[in-house]
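Researcher: I'm preparing a figure for a lab meeting and need a structural model of a single chain. I don't have an experimental structure, so a prediction will have to do for now. The sequence is pasted below. Please return the structure as tokens so I can convert it later.
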Amino acid sequence: MTIIQIILICIVAAFLFIVVKEVNASIAFVIVLCTSMFVLFIVMLEITKIIQLLQSLAQLVRIDSIYIQTIFKIIGIAYVTEFAANMMRDAGLSSIGSNIELAGKVFILILAIPIIQAVIQIILQFIPTEYPF
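Model: Understood. Here is the structure written out token by token.
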């Protein structure tokens, strides 16, 4: 039922935005910003349930927790970056939105480096060091 509540709140916010936009565009943007932050907060509450489930599964499979934490950080950066970039675009600042996306991609790459190194090390274990010919 949470999704229906979120959709209804967004519909009400959209109507408010349309009405207020004609009178004061700044207040209309604040309505969008507050609605977006509210939806993000509700979604974050739901995501914590998913994170707890994935952490318990990772413990069962005995995956190193550093990899799971890194993946969660990467997912978090992706969502927050998209949220912020879309807010900038809604405000008419698409160039700042693009810069936010670029920064998010760079930080994701930085976080992914240890995982990439681990994968390369695993691959190198399968490659023989001495050639028979």
